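Collaborator request, handled under Task 6.
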Amino acid sequence: MLSGYMVSLTNKSNLSSWEEIRYFGQKRLYRLYPIYFIVVLCTFLLNYDKISINQILSNLLFLQSFTNDVVFENRALWTMSFEVMFYFVFVLISFFNIKKFYVPLGALIIGIGLLLTNSNFPMLISVCFGLVYWGCGLLCGGIKWKSVNHAISNLIALALLIFCYQQLEVSAFVLKKLPHSMLPMASDFIHHPIKFIHLAFIPVCYLVIQSFNSKEVPF
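Structure tokens returned to the collaborator:
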């Protein structure tokens, strides 16, 4: 969600030419790849006896989540393939001037549709629900809320809320009451990193991002 938020903030106007698209891609690559390359290299050096060359190559090419070769010792690397994929989504919606609102809405409809039909595509479902988060970030970056100085105590409270939010189970409790067929049952983290139940975190993510950005949050 923070990724979509930052992309929206740093790209106010649509990408209207191939030159602008190329510049956007270069900017993203220069920002991400140097440190990413170092992380992958260090992961390999520390686990050289467990990791294959194919795993290293898939990670270097941002294919790890889709080739099932996420390195167990550094499983956070799965997020990078999603990140790069969402950059391509941004290029499409920006170039064709598609309303940002359709991104999370369309991804949510497709993801739920796949669950209702019991489709055996856990990674595609995860991509859809991940795109809901990322699309909500795009929307947050485009909304011009009134600026306000939040008390430091409020920001600390929000930071602490992040740590205990999952234990409160408020939104998750409601989502769990939905039909059983709508909840993906895959337990393998590598094949299904983002589940329908994780959408319960969107409200608090929105609240935290806007508050730490000194914006007035309605209601």
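The cover message to the collaborator said: "The CA atoms of residues 89 and 103 lie 9 Å apart. The chain is about 60% helix and 0% strand. Please let us know whether this matches your experimental observations."
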